[in-house]
Amino acid sequence: MNSSLRAVAASSLIVFAAVAGSAGQSSAATRTACEVMPASQASGILGSAVTAQVRPMPISAGSSVCVYMTGGRPIVQLGLTVMASDAVAEQMFKIQQQTSSQHPNVASRRKGNIVLSAITIHFTDAGKLGALLDAAAKNL
């Protein structure tokens, strides 16, 4: 009976360690997209005064979307997605690069297991997305 209890305890410890390890990876970005790229900094890059509103994103723990607005109208969205690993982030980033090559109003960047993506909504200067993403990546 003692050996059975030890086996269960050891198994439970292994499962707990595996879960804790994966949670540690996904909590790499504890800040929201709006915290990584605050409205004041985004305003300077976009060349227009913006306000920001964060929205949680249920794709993965720690992920969020920041909507930048001018006059109450959304103009750009910045997504911060925390992936389980660098390899998964790389796959997602490659998929997003394929999409952005066909759509000039979409762009993305990757840093470790975090993928940043942006899309213009009611904003005509899609060229500023790269600058916005580069600054957000530096702020991670």
Describe what is shown at a glance.
By secondary structure, the protein is of the alpha+beta class. The protein is built from 5 helices and 5 strands.
Description:
With 140 residues, the chain is α+β, with helices and mostly antiparallel strands. The protein has one domain (28-139): Protein Transport Mog1p, Chain A, CATH 3.40.1000. 47% of the residues lie in helices and 26% in strands. The chain is built from five helices and five strands, in the order αααβββαββα. The protein has helices spanning 2-26, 33-36, 39-46, 86-102, 128-139; strands spanning 51-56, 64-70, 73-82, 106-111, 114-120. A five-stranded antiparallel beta sheet has the order 1-2-3-5-4, sandwiched between helices. It is globular, with a radius of gyration of 19 Å. Mean pLDDT is 79; it is low at 1-29.
Distinctive features:
alpha+beta; 5-stranded antiparallel beta sheet; about 140 residues; globular; about 45% helix; disordered N terminus; Protein Transport Mog1p, Chain A
